[in-house]
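Tip: read the tokens left to right.
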């Protein structure tokens, strides 16, 4: 079945019009005859948004009962049964109420896409998982609901719904986003101009990165090598020399001139004819690049200008920054065009900047590496052809002033020069050709190949042998030099790999990207064999970099085994034998990363189990008395009432029933605390917050405390803002703190509960006049089963405070102890207010209330 098409409207902030645009697209498709249904859309009381629903078929929502309240969610089964062509589903990052098939709404959408149904959805930039922490730093509001970036990036189409901060604030002021009583608070907090501008920039940059990735894929698929200047990318070439920092800072300034410009530092790993690469300097320069927001890359290449330009074109770079040559004027005379001149000549559309620095002109004479490239061999043969007739003419003009010995030495010098330039075979051609010229023109009898004297024949033979040996030595030296250069490049690459291991870099895609860049490949992928059948093997990609079209190792240009069931595959060109050996080191490291990641996942999965086991062990040790005591009291009361041996009066029967009831209530509270603490420790306690007033929970708290609750003084102003909390959990928090305060309050001085607003939070203070807690023991009292160390273990196992803090933190709040002025202890419960929550990011459980209040 063909997978459905996903379209996502991405907004910079709540209220920019994502849902409106989504419904507008639904109306357009409906007008074209497309079968469109509304799976789930939240209007938040906005009139214009609600008008866009007219004429669209809506699939009835599923009603789920949870913790005594009813919630509505997307009915996934109903949409699948209806099988429309297009489903409109709002709030991509929404968390479903427990009891739903999937935990997240994006998982519901995945099922619809797999069923071949096209989906149109919407999400705000603050809900993307990768930048959730950045948004919290900007706005001060944590976002509990997130969606993995990969889900949004995998969308077939992403459209940015943009609006200037000023326009959005005007829209809010007109009442088109929040209800009237929420506008002032929102404009002064979340929707400040600075916050909205930062969120807008985040959305634009995130979408630009996604568009850039699509552009690179398009260029790779269509074999486009020319530079498209859609975005400034500045590549700075580093040699590890002292001028590196100057080049990096200059390149960073060039990149900063264009908003969103990228800085890429590149080092070509090979032996440099001017200076060797200093590993310490390269490490410092890499740190500087990363500090300035750039990325460091390393490739292997014998031709530095070609390697630089190949990398720059592959990255669609627009500018290339090089340092001025360190060669002196004398050194320039002994070599061809420098790296800068060659790069400028071949750069094409890429702008090349030659940056001056203090090290220019201080280099040494270049050392001849004897590279046996094709160009040098051609130069050797050309020199051989030119030198022989020129030497013959020059020696012929000398007449009888030179003898045969001098002529042989001159031709031997020519052989050595040709050997130094072109290696063995051009030198051998020169030696043979020179012997023939000497024999014909300068060995008596001349003009014939006959040699009259044995001495002359011996001289020519020795000449040929010496020429052959010299050319062989020069050729061998050149080969050894090339091998040494290759080994140096490999060692630098392996040193970079080792450095990444020591720095703790564990991102498998980053490692594959490094392999792809270093060996000039178009794509790299680590594949795992997951299953075998009778006919073929099944391979699954674990991570990839670049563009890869193969789905099996044998379809790639190179496959390097990393382990029995892991293979590193590369696409682009065939690898040489020594390159395969080097890639093997990367493959082994990739396999180690996979093992490390899986061990970490196993450890993370085992940690909650270990904590749960630890909790159960402590529970068995701690609750023996506390379980037995209320059970024994209830059992004794019930047994006495059932006994026929004693006639109980009505007052005695009532007293026994009251004792049994109190014991069972005590037992019920203890079991509830134990279960909730166990869920907190295991990370499975469901929390569903909604806007609520504090006066909703206080009656229940006081009723739970019974007669002791009647003595508690309450001073909660009615003007406090709504808090964003789970009513049942907040009630437990306050009840446990009050029970602890009542236990230690002196007679005649009951606890006091007060409330006040502080910034974006509401503080509930539970104040007692008891003995208080020393500062050194304040953290210890929040540990589970802390009372195990007390001498009196008849009043509980010490779960109340631990549970109160855990439940408060689960609601993004806190519990902190303070000294009560005049003596005693004050427990401060901080809960975030509901006024700062963006209108189109409702928490589970708040939807019905939001619809009624126009949020």
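Filled-in amino acids:
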């Amino acid at each position: 079945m063909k997978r459905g098409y996903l379209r996502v409207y991405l907004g910079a902030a709540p209220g920019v019009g994502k849902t409106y645009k989504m419904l507008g697209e639904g109306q357009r498709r409906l007008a074209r005859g497309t079968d469109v249904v509304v799976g789930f859309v939240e209007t938040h009381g906005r009139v214009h948004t609600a008008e866009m629903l007219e004429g669209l078929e809506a699939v009835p929502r599923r009603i789920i009962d949870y913790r005594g309240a009813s919630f509505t969610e997307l009915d996934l089964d109903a949409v699948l049964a209806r099988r429309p062509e297009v489903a409109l589903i709002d709030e991509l990052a929404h968390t479903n109420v427990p009891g739903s098939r999937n935990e997240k709404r994006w998982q519901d959408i995945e099922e619809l896409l797999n069923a071949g149904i096209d989906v149109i959805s919407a999400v705000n930039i603050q809900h993307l998982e990768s930048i959730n922490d950045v948004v919290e730093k900007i706005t001060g509001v944590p976002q509990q609901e997130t969606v993995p970036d990969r889900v949004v990036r995998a969308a077939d189409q992403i459209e940015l719904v943009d609006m200037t901060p000023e326009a959005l604030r005007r829209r809010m002021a007109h009442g088109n986003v929040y209800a009237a009583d929420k506008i002032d608070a929102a404009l002064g907090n979340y929707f400040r101009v600075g916050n909205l501008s930062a969120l807008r920039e985040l959305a634009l940059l995130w979408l630009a990165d996604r568009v850039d990735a699509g552009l690179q894929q398009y260029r790779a698929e269509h074999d486009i090598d020319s530079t498209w200047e859609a975005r400034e990318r500045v590549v700075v070439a580093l040699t590890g020399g002292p001028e590196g920092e100057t080049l990096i800072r200059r390149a960073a300034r060039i990149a900063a001139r264009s908003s969103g410009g990228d800085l890429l530092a590149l080092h070509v790993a090979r032996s440099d004819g001017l200076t060797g690469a200093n590993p310490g300097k390269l490490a410092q320069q890499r740190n500087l690049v990363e500090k300035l927001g750039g990325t460091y890359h390393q490739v292997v290449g014998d031709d530095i200008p070609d390697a630089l330009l190949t990398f720059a074109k592959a990255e669609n770079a627009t500018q290339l920054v090089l340092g001025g040559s360190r060669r002196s004027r004398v050194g320039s005379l002994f070599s061809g065009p420098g790296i800068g001149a060659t790069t400028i000549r071949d750069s094409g559309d890429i702008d090349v900047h030659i940056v001056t620095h203090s090290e220019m002109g201080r280099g040494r004479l270049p050392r001849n590496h004897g590279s046996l490239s094709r160009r040098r061999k051609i130069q050797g043969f050309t020199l051989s052809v030119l030198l022989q007739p020129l030497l013959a003419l020059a020696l012929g003009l000398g007449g009888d002033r030179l003898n045969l010995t001098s002529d042989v030495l001159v031709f031997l010098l020519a052989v050595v020069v040709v050997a130094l330039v072109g290696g063995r075979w051009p030198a051998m051609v020169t030696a043979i050709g020179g012997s023939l010229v000497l024999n014909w023109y300068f060995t008596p009898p001349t003009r014939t190949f006959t040699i009259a004297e044995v001495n002359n024949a011996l001289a020519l033979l020795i000449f040929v042998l010496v020429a052959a040996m010299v050319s062989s030595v020069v050729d061998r030296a050149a080969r050894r030099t090339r091998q040494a250069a290759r080994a140096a490049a490999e060692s630098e690459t392996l040193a970079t790999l080792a450095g990444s291991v020591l720095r703790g870099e564990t991102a498998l895609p980053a490692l594959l990207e490094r392999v792809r860049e270093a060996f000039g490949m178009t794509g790299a992928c680590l594949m795992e064999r997951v299953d075998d059948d009778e006919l073929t093997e099944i391979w699954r990609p674990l991570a990839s970099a670049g563009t890869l079209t193969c789905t099996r190792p044998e379809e790639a240009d190179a496959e390097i085994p990393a382990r029995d069931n892991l293979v590193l595959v590369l696409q682009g060109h065939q690898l040489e034998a020594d390159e395969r050996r080097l890639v093997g080191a990367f493959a082994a490291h990739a396999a180690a990363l996979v093992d490390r990641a899986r061990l970490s996942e196993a450890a993370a999965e085992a940690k909650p189990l270990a904590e749960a086991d630890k909790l159960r062990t402590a529970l068995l040790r701690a609750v023996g008395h506390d379980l037995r005591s209320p059970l024994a009291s209830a059992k004794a009361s019930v047994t006495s009432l059932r006994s026929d041996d004693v006639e109980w009066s009505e007052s005695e029967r009532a007293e026994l029933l009251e004792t049994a009831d109190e014991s069972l209530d005590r037992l019920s509270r203890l079991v509830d605390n134990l279960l909730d603490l166990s869920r907190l420790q295991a990370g499975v306690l469901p929390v569903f917050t909604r806007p609520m007033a504090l006066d909703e929970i206080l009656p229940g708290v006081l009723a739970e405390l019974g007669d002791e609750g009647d003595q508690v003084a309450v001073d909660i102003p009615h003007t406090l803002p709504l808090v964003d909390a789970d009513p049942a959990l907040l009630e437990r928090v306050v009840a446990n703190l009050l029970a602890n305060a009542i236990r230690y309050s002196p007679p005649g001085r009951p606890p006091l509960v007060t409330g006040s607003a502080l910034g974006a939070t509401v503080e509930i203070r539970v104040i007692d006049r008891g003995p208080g807690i020393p500062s050194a023991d304040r953290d210890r009292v929040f540990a589970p089963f802390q009372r195990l160390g007390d001498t009196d273990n008849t009043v509980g196992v010490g779960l109340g405070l631990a549970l109160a803090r855990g439940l408060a933190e689960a609601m993004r709040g806190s519990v902190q102890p303070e000294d009560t002025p005049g003596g005693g202890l004050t427990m401060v419960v901080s809960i975030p207010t509901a006024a700062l929550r963006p209108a189109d990011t409702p928490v589970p459980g708040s939807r019905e209330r939001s619809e009624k209040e126009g949020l």
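DSSP finds 26 helices and 24 strands in the chain. The longest helix spans residues 454-502.
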